[in-house]
Write a structure and sequence with these properties.
Helix content is about 85%, strand content about 0%. It has about 150 residues and is mostly helical.
Length: about 150
Amino acid sequence: MTIINQIRALIIVFMICSVLAGITAIPIESELKWLLDHPSMVPGFAEDWLRTCYDAISTTNKNYPMLAYGYDWLAFAHFIIALAFIGPLRHPVRNVWVINWGIISCIAVIPMAFIAGPARYIPFLHIFIDCSFGIIGLIPLLVCRNMIKKIS
């Protein structure tokens, strides 16, 4: 596999992960219900937190369904982020700036989680889970950028 194809494969993986992250934002109530209905899938320490989240989402969706629109926009943002990587998919060297933007965005997840998380009473462990999304996204993008440097 050529270096260009390796770069493209990493970009495709990143794009797919972004779309999947977006897709999971839409059915949040159903996902939480499913998790709570399958206790073997939930670590014991997280069950109370997930129950609280489910109760909040369920009550909100029942009484104020328009607030779920925020989750729809969250999903949409993930889809648009994935689309932004079409440029580097086609021309990695010319569009390395998009890779750099993605790297900055992934790094920015960490302070955002540590600032907004406590302000929203998010448990510390969940903040680390949120940070892991930025770290996981960062890995293929850093590898891409290093490969692009080799061919530019």
